[in-house]
Every structure is written in C-alpha cells, then in structure tokens.
Amino acid sequence: MMAEALAFLSVCAVVICTPGPDTALTVRNSIVGGRRGGVLTAAGIAAGQLVWTVAASVGIAGLLQ
C-alpha cells in the first residue's frame, strides 16, 4: 500500500510541475507583448478556467438533484 501511494505521489508531483500549454502561451505572449500581454493572457486563462469550473459545478449539482 505504501509503495503504491509513493508512486502515485511521485507521478502527481511530475504532472503538477510540468508546464502545460497555458504556461507556454503566457510565456510566449509575455515575450512578444511584454508584461501587459502576459497579464492579459493569464487573465484570459483564469477566466476560461472559471467558466469551466462553474459549468462543471452546475452539471454536478444538476446530477445530484
């Protein structure tokens, strides 16, 4: 049991620390458009994640009812 938990936590750490497409886009837009471009990109990504979170919450609430 302990070996499986350790393996799971190791994989989780690698997945969490690996930059994804959001990070790549933010870095690219920061380089091309400066600080403003990077901040606007990060704000757009956060807004998109907010929409996904609300949609998932509404869907789960609908299923539970």
Written overview of the protein:
The protein is flat and about 50 Å long. It is an all-alpha fold and 65 residues long. The chain has helices at 2-17, 21-64. The N and C termini lie far apart (36 Å). The mean pLDDT is 92. The longest helix is centred in the middle third of the chain and has 44 residues, at 21-64. Helix content is 92%, strand content 0%.
Compute the CA-based radius of gyration: 17 Å
Describe the global form.
flat
How many strands, what sense, and barrel or not for the largest sheet?
none
Overall structural class, as computed from helix and strand content, comes to mainly alpha
Instruction: Please give the number of β-strands.
Output: 0
The portion of residues assigned to helices is over 70%
Terminal Cα span: 36 Å
Q: Return residue spans where pLDDT drops below 50 for at least 5 consecutive residues.
A: none
| H-E string | HH
Strand proportion, as a percent range, falls in: under 5%
Please report the number of helical segments.
Answer: 2
If you average the pLDDT, what whole number results? Answer: 92
